[in-house]
Design a protein that fits this description.
There is one protein chain. The chain has two domains: 111 residues, Immunoglobulin-like (Sandwich); 298 residues. It has a 17-stranded parallel sheet that branches. Strands 11-14-17-20-23-26-28-30-35-38-40 form an eleven-stranded parallel sheet, with no helix packed on it. The longest helix has 22 residues. It is mainly β and 472 residues long. A hairpin with a 4-residue loop joins strand 32 and strand 33. It is built from two helices and 42 strands. The protein starts with a helix and ends in a 27-residue tail after the last helix. The model has no long low-confidence stretch (mean pLDDT 92).
């Protein structure tokens, strides 16, 4: 028994010794190299005081032996604006990291850029250093920082926003009642996720052809360039009046512009001109009992309606292109809706409100559905006064266009031959049936198209927002 016990103790010692040797059998070669999934971590524009999105990369040990990494750290140390999470450890330095054979670890990186009171973007560089086997490897960190005017859930009075540096709207904002927000040409407004521009007073957003005003989400990576639903949109609230959007780009929201009930007939809710509204999860223009005058606008690629004119109102659209080629999901609604009623009290009661005028002149309404117009009238005696004059519309045979009070000189169902609508180009091709089909009187009212080209330099104006120029 005594001999057996000694033997067992000896065997146990050997097992422990071999296990200990195996544990310490690290790859100590100075030629060993870690394998990174990225050699540079690049952050597109990061706004000051607002943290970035999180970037992730992997660090792999490609060898059949374990590697001991003496330290992983930010070269910039505690003063670095970057932050690390190393395989679950939140900190900018971690020591004695054992990376098993053929195994990987995950590192997550974020950055917050401090304001620098500069109108110009700045580059923020750092690196993550891996020190092991008396050698070092590193990964570059590069971020473009942009100082911004931060609007964080604020109520704004009468003021003017100038084009010095972008405005970042965080947690929404409100233009107060009886206040006027004036936005000068070239201003860019970035909206964080779930943020909205509420207007109880008036907004005058008047850009120029050379310096349009841009409303968009705050994700500036290339992958987000045309992704809808990144912010909530613009809401002109009930009582808001005299709002102007001229030479603006409104893109990648849920609703482009929601226009609520007008304050009075003498105070139109919205003048919309020379503006592009693109890539909306829901609707480009959603009006409820409003007064809108619109010309030279491109309204495209919306998950539901491009233009929904509901619960009555007065509307005039001249030389507008409404082209809906939404491709992110199945669209079940037409591009254009006209409606003059709504139900309330859990559907027990109905309120009828007249559309006293809905004119579409020298316009194009087209898309990838069989019928792109819905006239939703409560009954045959309720007022829904609409007219398509010198316009190209897409409706099928079940949609009657025989009433001359509603349809004058229209082109039905013919492809307008946009250049590349699935990639956002709604200019007319040289073979377009919409060329020279517009009424001269409307062309004279709006002699320059959305590209600032003349409409009156040839025989007749083209339909839609763009005048075809040959050899272009």
């Amino acid at each position: 028994m005594h001999t057996s016990l000694k033997y067992l103790i000896f065997i146990g010692f050997l097992i422990q010794l071999f296990a200990s040797c195996e544990k310490e059998d690290f790859n100590t070669s100075v030629n060993a190299k870690l394998v990174f999934s990225e050699d540079t971590i690049l952050f597109d524009t990061v706004f000051t005081t607002i943290g970035s999105s999180t970037k992730r990369f992997t660090v792999k040990n490609p060898y059949a032996k374990n590697l001991k990494i003496n330290s992983i750290y930010l070269a910039g140390g505690d003063d670095s604006p970057y932050r690390l999470n190393i395989d679950g450890y939140a900190g900018n330095r971690l020591e004695n990291v054992e990376l098993k054979e053929k195994d990987s670890l995950y590192i997550f990186v974020e950055i917050t850029v401090d304001p620098n009171n500069s109108d110009l973007p700045l580059v923020v560089n750092d690196s993550i250093v891996f020190s092991f086997n008396n050698t070092q490897q590193d990964i570059n960190l590069i971020a473009w920082g942009q100082d911004v005017n931060l609007i964080n859930g604020e109520i704004v009075g009468t003021e003017t926003w100038i084009n010095n540096k972008p405005y970042l709207i965080y947690n929404s904002m409100l233009v107060d009642t009886n206040s006027v927000l004036t936005i000068e040409p070239g201003v860019i407004l970035y909206f964080h996720k779930n943020s909205r521009l509420y207007v109880a007073g008036t907004i005058i957003s008047s850009g120029t052809y050379e310096s349009p005003i841009v409303f968009q989400g705050d994700r500036l990576e290339n992958d987000y360039e045309d992704i809808p639903g990144q912010w909530d949109g613009i809401w002109l609230m009930a009582g808001s009046k005299d709002n102007v959007f001229n030479f603006c780009e409104i893109k990648n929201a849920i609703i482009g512009i929601q226009v609520d009930t007008l304050a009075s007939i003498s105070k139109p809710t919205l003048l919309l001109s020379n503006t592009r509204i693109e890539n909306m999860t829901s609707t480009g223009i959603y009006a409820q009992g409003s007064t809108i005058e619109a010309y030279n606008n491109l309204i495209t690629n919306c998950g539901q309606f491009a233009v929904a004119l509901t619960i009555g109102g007065t509307y005039e659209f001249y030389h507008c292109t409404i082209g809906n080629y939404w491709g992110y999901s199945t669209r079940t609604t037409p591009s254009l809706l006209l409606n003059n009623y709504y139900y309330y009290n859990e559907g027990l009661n109905v309120e009828i409100r007249p559309i006293s005028k809905a004119l579409f002149a020298n316009c194009i309404i087209y898309g990838n559905k069989e019928t792109e117009i819905l006239i939703d009238r409560y009954d045959n005696i309720s007022v829904l006064d609409f007219k398509f004059d010198h316009s190209l519309i897409k409706v099928d045979d079940n949609f009657s266009t025989s009433n001359p009070d509603n349809f004058e000189n229209i082109i039905v169902y013919e492809d307008p031959k946009f250049k590349d609508p699935y990639n956002g180009d709604f200019e007319l091709d040289t073979m377009s049936v919409a060329k020279d089909k517009g009424a001269d009187k409307y062309g004279l009212m709006f002699p320059l198209d959305l590209n600032h080209e003349s409409r009156i330099s040839d025989s007749h104006p083209d339909l839609g927002a763009f005048e075809r120029k040959e050899n272009q």
